[in-house]
């Protein structure tokens, strides 16, 4: 496989070099200043073809106002220099005779004036720097008709998009994509990038968005969020535009999707729809978290977040795009509407509704080697799942500026979820000699509905004195769920005392929770760029759980009290604190200290047991942010936090959904205390388009909540959460991206390292588990104008798991993936492309060695006037690899899983582009370099 990747890279490099490197290359340099001799950093340097004014290359001046553009091959060029607030400089230049270097010296720009009696036609500069914002002009980065915003972003220097559409800009993950400064279907960036047309975009702005609190108070708190704002063309700010797509293929496969946008000066209205059985779903991490009840449902007591996708332990089994291949067979349906409206200058609304329906069928075979002191054994499970999930999600935000000093904001969201899950499984445990220890068959059925409603009301007041502010928010939420299910299981136990256990049970569960609270903040300027912030947070959660389990005996139901539970709790949280900040021109420091006091009063009504816990913790914090320039930043954060045990972890009730693996809560659990240190460095060279991003993260958790595992003589495992002394996690990542201009290419390289050390109890023996993972990725991209795109990438992961109780059982396995992508646009109307993925899973400890090759190809032709239509023939998984593979090592086991997947199919589809209000002025430019016209004077 390595030879295959090396061959492809060599082929692309050879063809690129042979086709594009002439015998002579030369360099252009100079410096930019104003009429007073002040140097102008970040001025845009554009080089155009004198024959048709198309864009050839561009760059920017460095902080000292100097510029240098290398590897030029053209004999004649037009040099254009642009800087905000100044008239553009244009001059035709020729390559130096008998030399390979041309220095233009100092070039002076004049300030813009509005009394010139002439028309000026000039090329649009591809990039403009505005303080902390980098602005790309979309016309300078030509895409194909019907291309979406994602295709446009891939062409921008410093922007990277992975296979799932996750975006990185200047080395940082983009958390938010706005459309004309407004949210588009909430905060999921991919709903905008995958559904909006590239031709609708005038400018792409990349900025570090300050926190809402920082924007309100004017006090920099050091929190930043990498954001992209898509500015629409004037032609698309009024009228409608969008895409409609439909396709049908072999194996009864089909795909339907579309988006329609109707925008006006004060309103944005968008509709999205999709339905397919081709394993495409486009749901984001936010969708998945919302389906499962919020981020708190994934937060473990050690402060970490763990999300498990699929598998027998995941009750919802919502498939999630994570950049990996989706396993199982899935039918996806969705519909959404987004409405943003500005009623007047003081009041605006953001709202959206989204519906998802997923039917996910999974067939899975799991082999697990378990390590216990003195008795290792093999576990095998074959399971079939059918998971149906329907979700309605509604969001409504109202912003109202009462006057220049006061504002009000109301944020509301509601979810309704219906889930229907059927799981059938056959499992067994064997010793290392192949002797059967136990085996079981079970069927789990769970059907139910849940809904939640949350509202937050925020009032802000700004005093006349700059920096003095007051804000208060009140939040209230309610959620309820009703589920009913059944468990039918037959378990056989072998050995000296063989036996059989038959379980036939029904269960009913109702959960409800009411939570409310408030957060108050007051800021006061102390002089000398110092500020004081006083904060107070209060919250109460009321929870009720009623779970009834009945044994089915013929037509009679017998109440099973040990498995049933009636529980009520009141959780109260107080957190007063203070922060002191110092804001300088290049850096800011924020130091804080708060006191968190929590009370938990719970009642187990069936057992007449009370759970009462009371905790107080001091929580220090420190944030430091240093900006070397607009594109180079260093930050350090130290944060402490407390994570209380969940209700499920505290209840001493048996969960027997898997009779061979039981779970019992522990009412003696204490909260975990987390120390987190984080360092981030981010640099982006605007002149050379070199990006460097590095971060290091270290977590130390005291009183961490781990698991105590015990196994009885029948090989039935019981898991109980317990407090352990400490857990440690450290990780580091580096990402370096740089262009190879001579061959129109870009390379990105990113190694990463993770180390996790934790204590667990196995058969009452304390065991230290050490997991280290070293990996990385390498990607090469070659682009020749809008005609050819080639991408080659590799991802590697090496994980080692070490066990103190038995070093001989230490585990080592490798996961690798290699990808090649090709897109060619030819004969004006045709496009050919495809991708080849090669996945490798190998274990040094077991005999597991699996490879999966995946090949996708397509060819398309544009039709109709203005190329509004596109006919595409695509072949998916042409090598017919209908399985998915994963492997992992954890506390005391190594596991390999093989899952069914979608096989080979051919799809014929048609796409139609909607646009009723195209502005002909937008077509004046030539490909690669837009044109704008200015009227000077009367």
TrEMBL record:
Residues 461-912 form the Outer membrane protein beta-barrel domain. InterPro entries: Beta-barrel_TonB_sf, CarboxyPept-like_regulatory, OMP_b-brl_3. It is found in: Cell outer membrane. Keywords: Cell outer membrane, Membrane, Receptor. It comes from the Bacteria. This is TonB-dependent receptor. It comes from Shivajiella indica.
């Amino acid at each position: 496989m390595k030879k295959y990747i090396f061959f492809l890279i060599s082929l692309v490099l050879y063809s690129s070099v042979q086709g594009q490197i002439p015998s002579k290359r030369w360099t252009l340099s100079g410096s930019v200043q104003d009429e007073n001799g002040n140097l102008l950093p970040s001025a845009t340097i554009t080089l155009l073809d004198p024959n048709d004014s198309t864009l050839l290359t561009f760059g920017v001046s460095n902080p000292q106002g100097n510029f240098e553009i290398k590897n030029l091959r053209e004999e004649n060029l037009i040099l254009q220099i642009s800087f905000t607030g100044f008239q553009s400089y244009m001059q035709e230049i020729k390559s130096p005779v008998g030399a390979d270097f041309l220095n233009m010296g100092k070039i002076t720009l004049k300030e813009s004036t509005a009394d010139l009696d002439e028309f000026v036609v000039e090329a649009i500069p591809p990039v403009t720097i505005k303080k902390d914002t980098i602005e790309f002009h979309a016309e300078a980065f030509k895409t194909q008709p019907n291309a979406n915003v994602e295709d446009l972003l891939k062409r921008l220097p410093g922007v990277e998009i992975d296979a799932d559409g996750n975006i990185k800009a200047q080395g940082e993950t983009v958390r938010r994509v706005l459309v004309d400064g407004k949210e588009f279907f909430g905060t999921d960036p991919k709903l905008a990038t995958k559904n909006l047309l590239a031709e609708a975009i005038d400018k792409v702005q990349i900025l570090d968005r300050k926190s809402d609190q920082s924007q309100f108070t004017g006090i920099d708190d050091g929190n930043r969020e990498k954001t992209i704002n898509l500015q629409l063309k004037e032609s698309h700010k009024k009228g409608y535009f969008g895409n409609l797509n439909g396709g049908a293929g072999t194996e009864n496969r089909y795909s339907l999707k579309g988006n329609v946008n109707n925008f006006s000066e004060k309103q944005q209205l968008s509709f999205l729809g999709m339905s397919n059985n081709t394993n495409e779903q486009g749901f984001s991490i936010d969708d998945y978290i919302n389906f499962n009840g919020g981020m708190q449902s994934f937060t473990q007591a050690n402060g970490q977040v763990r999300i498990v996708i699929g598998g027998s332990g995941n009750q919802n089994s919502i498939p999630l795009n994570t950049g990996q291949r989706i396993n199982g067979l899935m039918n996806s349906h969705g519909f959404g509407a987004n409405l943003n409206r500005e009623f007047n200058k003081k009041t605006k609304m953001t709202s959206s509704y989204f519906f998802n329906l997923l039917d996910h069928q999974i067939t899975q075979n799991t082999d697990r080697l378990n390590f216990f002191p003195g008795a290792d054994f093999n576990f095998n499970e074959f399971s079939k799942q059918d998971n149906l999930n329907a979700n309605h999600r509604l969001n409504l935000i109202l912003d109202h500026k009462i006057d220049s000093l006061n504002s009000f904001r109301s944020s509301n969201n509601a979810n309704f979820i219906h889930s229907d899950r059927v799981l059938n499984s056959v499992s067994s445990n064997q010793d290392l000699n192949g002797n059967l220890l136990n085996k079981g068959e079970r069927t789990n059925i769970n059907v139910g509905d849940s809904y939640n409603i949350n509202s937050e009301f925020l009032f802000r007041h700004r005093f006349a004195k700059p920096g003095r502010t007051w804000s208060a928010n009140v939040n209230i939420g309610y959620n309820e769920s009703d589920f009913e299910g059944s468990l039918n299981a037959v378990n056989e136990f072998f050995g000296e005392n063989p036996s059989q256990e038959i379980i036939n049970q029904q269960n009913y569960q109702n959960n409800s929770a009411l939570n409310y609270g408030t957060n108050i903040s007051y800021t006061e300027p102390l002089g000398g760029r110092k500020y004081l912030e006083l904060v107070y947070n209060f919250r109460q959660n009321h929870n009720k759980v009623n779970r009834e389990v009945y044994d089915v005996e013929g037509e009679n139901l017998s109440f099973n009290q040990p498995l049933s539970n009636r529980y009520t709790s009141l959780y109260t949280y107080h957190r007063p604190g203070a922060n002191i900040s110092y804001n300088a021109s290049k850096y800011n420091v924020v130091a804080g200290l708060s006191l968190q006091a929590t009370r938990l009063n719970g009642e187990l009504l069936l057992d007449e047991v009370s759970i009462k816990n009371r905790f107080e913790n001091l929580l220090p914090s420190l944030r430091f942010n240093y900006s070397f320039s607009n594109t180079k930043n260093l930050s350090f954060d130290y944060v402490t936090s407390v994570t209380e045990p969940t209700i499920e972890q505290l209840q001493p009730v048996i969960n027997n959904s898997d009779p061979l693996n039981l779970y019992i809560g522990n009412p003696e659990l204490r909260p975990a205390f987390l120390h987190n240190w984080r360092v981030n460095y981010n640099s982006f060279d605007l002149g050379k388009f070199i990006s460097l991003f590095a971060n290091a993260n270290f977590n130390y958790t005291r009183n961490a909540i781990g698991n105590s595992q015990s196994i009885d003589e029948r090989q039935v495992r019981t898991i109980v959460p317990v407090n352990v002394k400490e857990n440690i996690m450290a990780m580091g990542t580096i990402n370096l991206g740089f262009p190879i201009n001579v061959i129109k290419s870009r390379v990105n390289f990113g190694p990463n390292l993770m180390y996790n050390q934790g204590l667990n109890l196995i058969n009452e023996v304390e065991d230290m588990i050490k997991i280290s993972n070293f990996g990385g990725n390498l990607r090469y991209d070659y682009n020749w104008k809008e005609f050819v795109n080639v991408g080659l990438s590799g991802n590697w992961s090496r994980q080692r798991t070490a066990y103190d109780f038995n070093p001989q059982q230490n585990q080592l396995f490798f996961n690798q993936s290699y990808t090649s992508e090709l897109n060619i646009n030819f004969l004006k109307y045709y496009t050919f492309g495809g991708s080849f993925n090669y996945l490798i899973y190998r274990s040094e400890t077991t005999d597991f060695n699996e490879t999966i090759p995946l090949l996708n190809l397509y060819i398309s032709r544009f039709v109709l006037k203005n190329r509004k239509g596109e006919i595409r023939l695509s072949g998916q998984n042409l090598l017919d690899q209908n399985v998915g593979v994963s492997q992992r090592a954890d506390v005391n086991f190594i596991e390999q899983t093989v899952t069914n997947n979608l096989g080979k199919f051919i799809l014929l589809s048609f796409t139609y582009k909607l646009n009723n209000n195209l502005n002909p002025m937008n077509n004046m430019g030539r490909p690669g370099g837009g044109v704008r016209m200015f009227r000077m004077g009367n």
